[in-house]
Structure prediction request, 777 residues.
Amino acid sequence: MRVLAVAGVALRRLVRDRTALLFMVVLPVVVILVVGASVRGFSTFRIGVVDLGAGPSGHDLVAALERAPGLDVRDYATAADAARAVARGQLATAVVLPAGMDRSLRAGEPVDVAVLAEQANSSEQAAAAQVAAVIAEQGGLVQAAVFATDQVAALAAGTDAYAANLARAAAVRPGVADVGVASEVVDAKATILPQGFSYSAPTMLVLFVFLNAVVGGAAVIQTRRLGMYERMAATPTAVSAVVAGETLAAVAIALGQAALIVGIGATAFGVSWGNPAAAAVLVALWALVSAGAGMLAGTLFRTPEQATAIGPSVGIAFAMLGGCMWPLAVVNEAMREVGHLTPHAWAVDAWTALIARGGTLATIAPQLGVLAAFAAGFLTLATVRLRRSLV
Amino acid sequence: MGWMRRVTRAAAHRDESSARTHPAGADAAAAPGADAAAAPGAATPAAPTGTAVVVGGDALVGAPGPDGDRVPGDAGRPLLACTDLTKRYGDRVAVDGVSFSVGRGEVYGLLGPNGAGKTTTIKMVCGLLPPDAGTVSLDGREPARDAAARARVGYVPQDVALYPDLTAAENLAFLGRLYGLRGTTLRERVAEALALTDLQARGGDRVGTYSGGMRRRLNIAAGLLHRPALLVLDEPTVGVDPQSRHAILGRVRELGRNGMAVLYTTHYMEEAERVCDRVGIVDRGRIVAEGTRRELVSRLGEQDRIELTATGDLADLAEQCRALPGVERAAVTDRGVRLLTSDGRRVLPALLEAADRSGAAIDSVEVAEADLEAVFLHLTGTALRE
Prediction:
């Protein structure tokens, strides 16, 4: 009962702290919303079109690009302007339609349509691929029209056979199976989380639960500085009960925040958290890791101000290294190794396995094992240090 | 208040077998440790829950100080016995072989300047610090190792130790739970402690909104919540306004009269004289003298204490005074110089000449009979509040 009394008073004090509640509840949801919406933008690519005098075929191609799902077409006057916009990230890619394109196509000559994209950016490569698919489709129509024109030219002397055949080829298209281009995970080797809220919700869960716990270490410091631990030690309450109570409160707070993010992610943002049992174990272990880190922070920092100033820096640095800000798949091998010195990387790996690859408890067992070791280490260190500060 | 009525009954019962002599007006003293909390394993049985009845409420506030010396209670079998307590921090000896005892119904004071070792001593008494040597015994049990012994001690730390973001009632309820109190008993004790410290009207307010004096009173209420056999107060009036101080001292006196053993530390001589039955004078980690006020003052014989309120080179003034015939001790205080003389009136003219020589300006001169301040000066050669 004394353990519950210590835990209860810590929770009661948290509920009274509106600032802490803001950081615990409101901020994670807002960040999930912002990051999720930003990352979700990858599914709609903004492309530029530079028409250098391509003629009717060029207009047809632009119309096809505008019809294509997921492409937002903008006109640019020159190739240089478009290239600059791509370099600045304003465009995912740009298409340059050469002068005399229509004339060359009618003559059966090859035409090069330039597609500008940054080589290093995977999302831009995906946009370029989608544009290329539209061009290829349009090219197929042109080839069909040229072929038909060659065949019927003699019979249709005096008429614009190419234009008529091109229109006929286009008319045939609705009967042909529409082949779209969309990127999706098709194998079991995906190394990054899906885009959108499925990316932001689990990574922000990892980030905020840990961050909040570390900052929450200030409560331990404050309790010590208020002289309450000394007062508790003067009662018949064993020091171990005080430590257990504080730990229980920290775990409950971390669990509560994690559950909140999971719930809001699932209901408001449509996030599928994967195998429920595995997700539950992962959330519980992450709560233990975070609570242990928070308790440790409470014994390492000397003032609440230190905890609230240094804690977020440490939490965000761990989150960056651990793949909460960007996938570790896009960083070099050395940084990936460094990232896995943080528990965050293991948690994000586990969420990736659950959400992107449909993993199970068995699948993420290695990550859970590492997280359990982190939790045990943090909690043991925190307990030892807190006991020392109490007696 | 029900628990006070119960204490009175218990004391009356115990007195039948006690050879103790009671001071005037203290006939309800000497309750045994039956008023300890109902903690598991406690040496004494749990106290019955009495009906909340205000008994002598007015007497709790501003009870007059002792006219003379009160005889310590149950001297033959003290509730608390400290023997040769020693505590070192590195090379510094904070507490050096301190021994004293506190009987039931006795208010025992540790009087000494800041840094003398008072707080370290009471932390060892409460089991918060392990002594390097010596023993603490509460009815034969050691608080540091025995939870049941700690359940019989009420600790009131020097700095207010309460959660400012919780209400007074929530703070008390939390601490009550740590003492093993539950349900109706807990609620009654919380209400009782709030009433005892005149805070019942503000019990639902957050402690952060309290004045300094109210926090001090609540700090004491938290130590009384579980009806301890021994109440340990570490300078409970520091920073308190005169009215709250008056009330606190009155309550401490009343608690002693009603049978509670009280260990009280202070660096205010007048508090020790007013509240304590016996005083241990502490200097540099050692108890240099112990006894009732009368016993301690009688050591000085017919000496007078002279307080010179002065400005200027006070160290030189003190040095000049020490050289005067009839001046036994002279020490600089925060407002002037304090002297101990065999005949205050005869030495006065020479003192004024000494002040002239040293260039100090005398604002006032006060000649008083020997008191605990004089005793401290006599024993240590320094002023109590230096």
